[in-house]
Design brief:
This protein has about 160 residues and is mainly alpha-helical. The chain has one domain: Four Helix Bundle (Hemerythrin (Met), subunit A) (Up-down Bundle). It is built from six helices and no strands. Helix 3 packs across helix 4, helix 3 runs parallel beside helix 6 and helix 5 crosses helix 6.
């Protein structure tokens, strides 16, 4: 069971991801009609990075609360994502195996974004991630909320 502080932290992360996507909605719609210019591409890279970072922050909170075993080493980001699928005696899986597979390219982009100059970003590599982002968000948000019993509005438990 989550304590209120942990539940509020996770709900705040989810609301911030929602705000991120709302803030950039016009740009996300624009690039469905045409390819982005360099400035738009750079902004889209930041959106993808921030999206995954928000999920990763949520996953870290879950691990610290339930597993108390934060992954270490060079592969800790990938291990953290894998850990969100795994059921333990303290928690069920937070996301499904399918959702993990959907998120792996976003994790991969996170690495690219952190280690490349923005002018080296490739629309061809980002286009599907951007196009799929709204649906991916709906799926991930739904899984996290239902498993962790987080409501959409306030971060309080969902009334059953």
């Amino acid at each position: 069971m989550l304590d209120e502080r942990t539940r509020a932290h996770i709900a705040r992360e989810l609301r911030q991801i929602e705000q991120l996507l709302d803030t950039y909605e016009d740009l996300l719609q624009t690039v469905r009609q045409r390819d982005p210019d360099l400035i738009e591409l750079t902004a889209l890279g930041a959106v993808l990075h921030s999206f995954y970072l928000g999920l990763e922050n949520t996953f870290q909170t879950v691990v610290k609360r339930f597993d108390k075993n934060m992954p270490q080493g060079d592969q800790w980001h990938k291990d953290l994502l894998t850990q969100m699928v795994r059921k333990t005696d303290r928690k069920g899986g937070i996301i499904s195996q399918t959702t993990q597979e959907i998120l792996e390219p976003y994790l991969g982009f996170r690495h690219v974004y952190r280690h490349a100059y923005s002018f080296k970003l490739s629309w061809q590599q980002m286009q599907q991630l951007i196009g799929d982002l709204p649906d991916v968000w709906i799926t991930v948000r739904s899984e996290i909320r239902s498993v962790l019993d987080i409501s959409a509005e306030s971060g309080t438990p969902v009334d059953c």
